[in-house]
Amino acid sequence: MDAHDRKRIAVAVQGGGAHGAFSWGALDRLLEDVERDRLEIVALSGTSAGGFNATLCAYALGTDDEQVLRARTARKLLKDYWLSDAADAPFSPYTVTAKAWHETTGSWNIDSSPVALTAALSNQLWSPLFFPQYDWLAQVLGNKIDFPTLQLQREPPHLYIATTNITLGRRDVFAKSAVTLEVLKASASIPQIFMPAHYGNYDYWDGGYMGNPPLSPLISHATDVVIIQLNPFARNERPLTAMAISNRVNEVTFNSSLIHEINAIEAMNKVLDYLDEKSKDNASVRQALETLGPLPFNRVNLYRITDEAYMRTLGYASKAVVAREFLQELYEKGWKAADDWLNKSYPSLSSTAPRVAALPSSPPAKDFPDQVLDDLLSRKNTFK
């Protein structure tokens, strides 16, 4: 296929612990089309487990190898990571319980199990100061990525990892040239389980609180942005038990930043569509736009790869289950969701780069401290 016909997308990968194996499956299906030269992933963003998936993918695709080999390497790295996560993870009562629970009930949702209830109570009484801190990420991910090589890559895809800076109360985004193993640890530092990750002069918690996943860094790279979503937006049943409430609070909290960014992008799309429509039959508007020159924003088409019906069958505790059978099931669900999305949406995707490659700089917003505004609105917290 001619490079001009290859569809260009940016991919935002949501975090969600072991549920990230769904994203493994979705990315694997997308990479099949990269391998076939039908698709180009020009940028990736991610948070927590989504950050792991995005980094593995960006690392393999950013090499100087032929595209087919790069895509195959990315698929292999993702598979090796998730299977080694299942094989090398420390003993987990969650996983042991989930296997027995699944054999008995057919469900991986262990929120009502004694293990999950005990852990939930323990998290209310004890801080991570009292928990052993096991460096599992270095064991299952550190030997799969050469971070100095990653940082020096100049080939696409671009990469952005979100973290929550709890020292300054802001979202810090790390571009590919600044991503390290410590950054990925910071992005996945769940406060109930891990001590705050210390990086540079700041302490960090899981990036999901501020960007799960971050969308704004992607909009200058592609007109089509695909979100691989793990946390369902909707649930019909009322959360009445303590665990159901905890699970729903987690889902709403870790979706909130995503919803706000989606709304902001759609608001800008409506403005652009309105101006475009008015300029067709209003000479004054058309002349004003011609005088201004090209607007410094692109229309962004947002897509989702998800399976909300399946994700609603899971709970909060299953995000800590790394049973191989569970990860494989999630992979298959993610692969099918991505396949369905490609079959439906591929013809509508663009093969051209955005007209505006970067947003202009602007002065800080009045009455707001510089550090709480997004980098695209002048905050200097995207590290490169």
TrEMBL record:
Q: Where is this motif: DGA/G?
A: 206-208
**Domain spans labelled PNPLA:** 11-219
Q: Name one GO molecular function term.
A: hydrolase activity
Its keywords, alphabetically, are:
Hydrolase, Lipid degradation, Lipid metabolism
Ribosomal protein is among the record's keywords: no
List of catalytic residues: 48, 206
Q: Where is this motif: GXGXXG?
A: 15-20
Q: Which GO terms describe its biological process?
A: lipid catabolic process
Chain location of the short sequence motif GXSXG per the record? 46-50
Record bears the keyword Hydrolase = yes
Q: What is this protein called?
A: PNPLA domain-containing protein
